[in-house]
Description:
The structure holds 2 protein chains of 2 kinds. Chain A is of the alpha/beta class. In chain A, 32% of the residues lie in helices and 18% in strands. In chain A, helix 6 (176-186) packs across helix 16 and helix 10 runs parallel beside helix 16. Chain A is globular and about 70 Å long. By secondary structure, chain B is an all-alpha fold. In chain B, 26% of the residues lie in helices and 2% in strands.
Amino acid sequence: xxxxxxxxxxxxxxxxxxxxxxxxxxxxxxxxxxxxxxxxxxxxxxxxxxxxxxxxxxxxxxxxxxxxxxxxxxxxxxxxxxxxxxxxxxxxxxxxxxxxxxxxxxxxxxxxxxxxxxxxxxxxxxxxxxxxxxxxxxxxxxxxxxxxxxxxxxxxxxxxxxxxxxxxxxxxxxxxxxxxxxxxxxxxxxxxxxxxxxxxxxxxxxxxxxxxxxxxxxxxxxxxxxxxxxxxxxxxxxxxxxxxxxxxxxxxxxxxxxxxxxxxxxxxxxxxxxxxxxxxxxxxxxxxxxxxxxxxxxxxxxxxxxxxxxxxxxxxxxxxxxxxxxxxxxxxxxxxxxxxxxxxxxxxxxxxxxxxxxxxxxxxxxxxxxxxxxxxxxxxxxxxxxxxxxxxxxxxxxxxxxxxxxxxxxxxxxxxxxxxxxxxxxxxxxxxxxxxxxxxxxxxxxxxxxxxxxxxxxxxxxxxxxxxxxxxxxxxxxxxxxxxxxxxxxxxxxxxxxxxxxxxxxxxxxxxxxxxxxxxxxxxxxxxxxxxxxxxxxxxxxxxxxxxxxxxxxxxxxxxxxxxxxxxxxxxxxxxxxxxxxxxxxxxxxxxxxxxxxxxxxxxxxxxxxxxxxxxxxxxxxxxxxxxxxxxxxxxxxxxxxxxxxxxxxxxxxxxxxxxxxxxxxxxxxxxxxxxxxxxxxxxxxxxxxxxxxxxxxxxxxxxxxxxxxxxxxxxxxxxxxxxxxxxxxxxxxxxxxxxxxxxxxxxxxxxxxxxxxxxxxxxxxxxx
Amino acid sequence: xxxxxxxxxxxxxxxxxxxxxxxxxxxxxxxxxxxxxxxxxxxxxxxxxxxxxxxxxxxxxxxxxxxxxxxxxxxxxxxxxxxxxxxxxxxxxxxxxxxxxxxxxxxxxxxxxxxxxxxxxxxxxxxxxxxxxxxxxxxxxxxxxxxxxxxxxxxxxxxxxxxxxxxxxxxxxxxxxxxxxxxxxxxxxxxxxxxxxxxxxxxxxxxxxxxxxxxxxxxxxxxxxxxxxxxxxxxx
Lengths: 769, 236
């Protein structure tokens, strides 16, 4: 800035200040648009970078940098409030070790190179692998942090252009059971309700969901309602005492995996006491049973296909006889009284009940089943699809819904429908302008199996974007060793060095969040747009544009024709074609740009807050319930039994290991640990022990202990009577710390229906170090 | 006589029981009926953060503030105040050891931070929260356990707003910061924990925004002035 500009600016500044002071509350629009005086902050909207709640933020910008954050008071999600991660989120852009140049491994060492050379190498290596080993030897692994355009071009590139279904995302590790739960019960993915249910519900039942730490902004909305309305109650149904338990009106602890039995016992009580909403069930529900003894996917190439058989109410009642509360008390450790209490809460016709859950139910070897069972409860009493009556599956990533579930970046999915369906394949081929034969009609590898295939050598090339599998894969040692084998080529796109970039042959530096334009979709079907607010450093490029560049290098210019300036709106326009109609219509680009998000189905200029009820959802026939995802518009109530976890504590490994998060850190901590406030609050991982167990072993708070499972071992400081308290015989370890890889101990068993691993239950022993 | 007295007592007890029975029955009946007839409430939308809600809060202490001690030994400076924040307007960290990591904060934090008070251990008055109705304190306020960094950062804290900006000499200064989460002026600008530089000389005047107007944060105030309907009149 030269002297003249400076003087001019100064004059403008003082004039503005004087004017503003003289005319209180009035902004002169013209002046506001003028160059702002030094020290002034411009505020722009964006959804938060972190969890699936999707808070609206206002990002404060000054001199081309993000300098501050506040909650967007206009966002119906968070109404102006954030959590500690959101408030400090912009600091994650500015750590010193940011990846800004492409790196290529030459003779074992990473060497800086030009972006063109790196992209050429990725394209040629991918082509070479396809030529040598076939289309299914290349794969792409993304995440629920992919923006919608990222996921869309990834799907078009892999499934449409190259022609392989080897496309997966880390949401397989976090949301897959929620998806299969929705599909098996309702035939359509994603919650029917919305966050406004919180303002109407009388009772909240949290199923294994430490909401105070994991979805704190929503939990604050619960607390706020409890202050305003004296009848509001929060019930925490969990396996460990957490901050949520202490804030709840009632904390009920159960033995892991027995949530299956508890849910069935609640149904038993509801039927036994005549609390069933007879008319609702008769008109809107059908009863089904599936296969049992379905296995755990521990062996390579595990295959399972469920089969639905129709049953009637009497058969369902017969099935529930094994789940009388007194029987379930013995299995679950929850007293029959508490089970009856829960049933009475759901059964009371005068109470509106909302259930929340997240990883507790999804990371579960019977994840699909437990999702089905909680829907059963809501369906039996008809508490669904109306304000305050809501079975609500929460998400953990900013666009797990928007990208992975809606765009469908999973092996079996297409942006509309599934690869197995010819009509869906035809639709995709037409929009993508590719021959329909390009899209293989069979799903290939789900995440765990994809990493197994990499180990076995069927997959030779993997491109990993916005995720950190070398921290998050269960039974990590096997998959790390597999990735490091000879003749495997790994490309990693990320913003910081991580254990995953350690295994990379090429590292592409990515533009992060508000350094590029994009959209996220949150848990309540809300799509939120953010524009590019700051410049990306160095050679950083958005994940969308990286894929486009590589695709063009491989000869797919026709499928990826967009100009850089227009590619995001163009992609949005093309993607929206897949969802046209009343059931899944998406809001136009301009609408998304102008407001803090819109909820699909977006029909006739309006968001839909509650699906499957004619009063709120324009896709329904008539003015009542219509579960149009299923034939005859009926939701399915499933008979799903209790089946034990694959690895239960025994004599040799007497403790049960549970893993999870803390409020300060998000996922693998690659961003939050680089935010000083958050890192300093929780600098390292630890192991929570029950005080009596600790005492018995002579372990005191802070002592180093060794955890050993059949797959690995790790040393951690003990945490006794600190933040959380596991029950006796259990321990808890957060997974954010790349220096303490707890997933070297976890088991790669998964739900046979959803293929989502269970990170919450495996057997370990504890040794004093 | 004794008989009569006894009978009188039993009649009295009987009537008392009847009345209480009626009251109990009536209440339980009506509450049930109310619940049953509720159906779906009309949407009465109450935003969680009404921008002007907190202005008058704590005004009952205004006179006390006027008479509170003003010793040097425990004074907080504005620099101390900003030291605890990643940027001006960020939620402050918790700079002291905590009794418990369990729980969301709530009552245990509010014991000191709802109304303030002297803490001998820290030789300081506890700062008062401007939003005591938000109970999950640990949602936004982190407690550092270490001074180390995981990786070095290029983050630069911007300077805080300057404390000046009266239009005329001697005129009331404007409010240079966002009011979001800080609608209650007296929480930070009055009392013994208030940083000296921003302590108000006249807390008893209570209606702060009668004279002091915010110059930023128009969106928060819901007073949005589009360029289309700005106040600007041309002579006809």
